[in-house]
Amino acid sequence: MIASELLLIAVSADPKKNQLLAALPDTEWARWLPQLEWVDLPLGQVLYESGSTLSHVYFPTTAIISLLHVLENGSSAEIAVVGHEGLVGISLFMGGESTPSRAVVQSAGKGLRLPAQAIKDEFKRAPVLHLLLRYTQALITQMSQTAVCNRHHTLDQQLCRWLLLSLDRLQGSELVMTQELISNMLGVRREGVTEAALQLQASGLIRYARGRISVLDRPGLERRTCECYGVVKKEYDRLLPEKTAA
């Protein structure tokens, strides 16, 4: 096995690649570690459905999870993305056993999960309480801004915002993503996603082929997107601990 592959395995197997886990005080970390379980998170896997009872909370390390609001007719639209900065399953410590959203793996990778009862018990302890509430505030900002963005900004701007938020949660600059999944995230037709992606490609910002999106010009994407990306990023940077060094 070559050195780069060994390094990738070592990085993906480090639980403290998740920012919330890395920020835990030593006492809490020692108590959590025996209960944390590594899980593979393949592309398209549903972690929970709308209205279902949550059995675990998930802490992605190299995967990205999309939270989608699902309508009665089965259509859906993304309301937030979660990566190595956070966790999936905030309803468990916000007073509910279920949530109206669906959680789907947007970018394959790994993560850890903690049993529902364990997070409920831990939430009674002050240090973890403040950390998870700050994360929840940042996530709610992302959800609110996404709703505004989907209502008032162009598909081109929405796609740029979505790409930038996804990049913030990945190690590299390439996303593996089908047109169908992107259309589900943004709540638009596949043809609209194709047209918007081709426009970004024609502008030299991305390369899009065979379900892979490579970002070639991130500053260009930031100039092209709406203010929504900046609002969300500023709130995450303000509320959450700084990223740990690789």
Automatic annotation (TrEMBL):
Short name of one Pfam family: cNMP_binding
UniProt cross-references to SUPFAM superfamilies, sorted A to Z: cAMP-binding domain-like, Winged helix' DNA-binding domain
InterPro entries for this protein: cNMP-bd_dom, cNMP-bd_dom_sf, Env_Response_Regulators, HTH_CRP, RmlC-like_jellyroll, WH-like_DNA-bd_sf, WH_DNA-bd_sf
PANTHER family for this protein: CRP FAMILY TRANSCRIPTIONAL REGULATORY PROTEIN, HTH-TYPE TRANSCRIPTIONAL REGULATOR ARCR
Every Cyclic nucleotide-binding domain range: 20-147
Full protein name: Crp/Fnr family transcriptional regulator
GO MF, one annotated term: DNA binding
